[in-house]
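JOB MANIFEST
job_type = single_chain_structure
chain_count = 1
residues = 262
[input]
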Amino acid sequence: MPAIVLVLLLLALLWIAFCGYTWGWGPFAKLHPLDAGRLPGNAAAYSIERVEPLAGSALKGTTIIFLGSSVTYGAASKGISFVDYIAKRDGCTAIKEAVSGTTLADTGKSSYIRRLERLDADHADLFVCQLSTNDATQGKPLGQVTPPSQREGFDTATVAGAIEHIIAYAGNRWGCPIVFYTNPRYESAAYGEMVTLLKEIASKWDISIIELWDDEGFNVITPEERKLYMADAIHPTQAGYLKWWTPKIEEGLSEAMRKDAR
């Protein structure tokens, strides 16, 4: 076997191992140093089994598609995220298409776009997409928003092009309201630039954003709450999802439904 092939195979193996250690996904997921089960925020008190349905939810009976990565999946909360809490609390059908470590930018078979286009779903009342922190962490190019009249032919290797493609695809396929959500504040200038970009794209396409990043009131929590709610700067625990994120996202999704009905 040529030496170059061996080098490439070794590099690929190292990358997969790095992904397992850094984001807790893939065949080397056990290398990830975080033991979610030991976190106070993942105690039995916050388990989905103890969650009671909400009365009179505007989301009851709807089907909602959630596209994302580790935050949508619940990588630090034993696979339970706001998606699962919303399904239980609001009585809706949640289709959770989430793979840790993946990006909006279309650079592989597990990207948001590839998984979206393989998704087996005939109907949706809402489509919700995570503004992935992985694009910022992995240094994916931002790209630029296309002119107002452009509705296809986007550069999906960039964050901007991927977002526009996802919006166009979801709109054409399901014809439902489209909502993006951001992470709350953490130390990342690159992610802040992505949030600014998303706002520009949202203005072009008239979609909704649940802006956890820019919501000053939402981001004001005590150090004790942060320790309970977050496993690290990016990933919530079950307590964080249930007590902090879920009510805010429910509010944003309900508003998107009301906006569409006007």
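[summary]
Residues 210 and 248 are 8 Å apart (CA to CA).
The chain has two domains: 1-30, 53-261.
exit_status = 0
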